[in-house]
Amino acid sequence: MDGAEGAVLDVELGAGEGAGGDGGQDDGQGQGEDGQQQRQLTPEQQQAKADREYKAWLKGLREADPKTHGRFARQAQDDRGRLLELSRLEPKGIDGVREKFAILDSVTYEDPERGVLTGTEAVAALQDQVREMGEVDSLLAAGDPRALEALGDDFNEGLAKLTPAILDRVRAADPEAYAAAILPHFVQALAQSDLIGNYNALVDTLNEAMPQWLPEDKKAAWIADKFRRVTELASGMGGWLKAQMDAAKGDGKANVSRGTKAGNREQGTGNRTDKAAREQEQAATREATQHYSANITPKLNQHAEQKFNELFRPYAKRLHLDSAARADLAKAFTQGVTTKAMARLPGNKPNAYEQQMTRYWRQRTPAADSVVNYAKVEFDKHAPTIFQELINRRYKPFLAGPRAGAGSRLSAADGRPSGRLRDDLGRRALRTQGARADRSVRTAKPCPISTRSLLTINMRLPA
After folding, report:
1. Rounded to two decimals, what is the model's pTM?
2. Contacting residues for 355 by C-beta, under 8 A, at least 6 apart
3. How far apart are CA 26 and CA 18, in angstroms?
């Protein structure tokens, strides 16, 4: 083990300078007064003090060797100025900027003319749409007919389906307004109906007078014919009323669908329509699954593996994990990050990440770079914490003990050391580690890192 790596591990384990050794005590005493003064300064004063010290250090560099250090000192000063300005805009620095950019880049909007828009263009289009919707809402609330004009012809079919429900709501809320609204349409419909036609014919028939020239032997037949016509017209009026009542109740449609050929044809058409809709939905799901499998999931898998290797690197030589133990740690790491990213809010509500991933899935074939960037930012946000928790839970007792030799390795099969690591302290530490580790995710075979569960919400249709 080289000295640099040992120093890193000592700092992580609290065994280096400032953690109880002589050098740490001396440093603590030497810095005590400065630390006390530092705590008495406001954050603004601390920043100003740091700026002065930094500028003084750069000035010393330039004066010591202007030819060699001058250009780099100016560049360092410029870089620091940019960093400070960035910290004022976003306290979390570049990580915060990346997170906000990923959220902004995840915004999409499908424009009928320009296609799918992303980022700032999508935000601008959504703002326009929200403004237009607000105007329509205001017109609807005011009862202005221009609201229907703003909806356009594409809404005609939907409005026709909603009309019965709208009328029911108006009737319950304001009966007088309901009556005033339907009266003109009711009168118009009656004027063109068989009811009015039969009624007018009935009045004409009742007003007919027997001809004076009719012989006595024909009068009885004439009266019988008039009575028959009156009866037929009255029956027609009653039949029309019953037909309207049946139609209002839906009985006419139900009778047709139960036994007539027309009803059977209608039912068959409905079945074919439902089947076509299901097939279309299944095809869209297959298309989305193929898109994610080919363009998104592999990139997330690669990023997860790179992130694990980056976090594991400082511990690699100290732990000497065999391939199975390392793969097991990687699997637990990915599962832990995924669980954290998909954690539900109170009331079992999806968090912002899951909601955005659901929006992506509903697009079926969203921009792969946008999805990957958004998921990577969320993954990186939780990765360091989850990894450190895993290391502490599994290997902290071992790391706190005597350092292992280069030929010693830890195994995932039973959590015991192999090679030359046989001392009692090592065995006790590893037994403790084995009892606390996540046995549910252990495996004796190497397993690849996978972030497939990161896209679990995308691998199914939203409810």
Report:
1. 0.49
2. none
3. 8
Supply the Cα-derived Rg of the chain in whole angstroms: 40
Q: Are 373 and 382 in contact (CB under 8 A)?
A: no
Helix H, strand E, coil C: the string for 258-326 is HHCHHHHHHHHHHHHHHHHHHHHHHHHHHHHHHHHHHHCHHHHHHHHHHHHHHHHHHHHHHHCECHHHH
Amino acid found at 205: T
Residue 255's contacts (CB-CB under 8 Å, 6 or more residues apart) are: 246, 263
C-alpha–C-alpha distance, residues 202 and 104, integer Å: 74
Q: Which residues contact 93 (CB under 8 A, 6 or more apart)?
A: 83, 86, 87
- CA 258, 263, 265, 266 dihedral sign is negative
Amino acid in position 299:
K
Q: Shortest CA distance to 226 belongs to which of 251, 192, 193, 203?
A: 203
Give the distance, in angstroms, between the CA of residue 151 and the centroid of all CA atoms in the same chain. Answer: 28
Q: Which residues contact 360 (CB under 8 A, 6 or more apart)?
A: 106, 366, 370, 371, 374, 458
Nearest to 6 by CA among 339, 352, 317, 300: 317
Cα dihedral 108/110/111/112 (nearest 10): 170
Helix (H) or strand (E) holding 410: strand 409-410
Tens digits of per-residue pLDDT, 221-255? 888 888 898 899 888 888 888 888 888 886 444 33
For residue 307, the Cα-to-chain-centroid distance in whole angstroms is: 24
The string of pLDDT tens digits covering residues 309-337 is 999 999 988 888 899 999 999 999 999 99
Any idea where the domains of the chain sit in the sequence?
296-459
Report the Cα–Cα distance between both ends of the chain, in Å, rounded. 54
Cα separations in angstroms, 65 against 53, 70, 80, 221: 19, 7, 21, 135
Residue 130 has a CB neighbour count (10 Å cut-off) of 10
Please write the tens of the pLDDT for every residue from 133-150.
888 888 888 888 888 887
Q: What is the DSSP letter of 430?
A: H
In whole angstroms, what is the distance from residue 235 CA to residue 238 CA?
Answer: 5
DSSP state of 451: -
**In angstroms, what CA-CA distances link 337 with 297, 300, 386, 387, 452?**
16, 13, 6, 8, 12
How far is Cα 138 from Cα 274, in angstroms, rounded to an integer? Answer: 37
Average pLDDT, the chain: 75
Cα–Cα distance for residue pair 454/375, rounded to 1 Å? 8
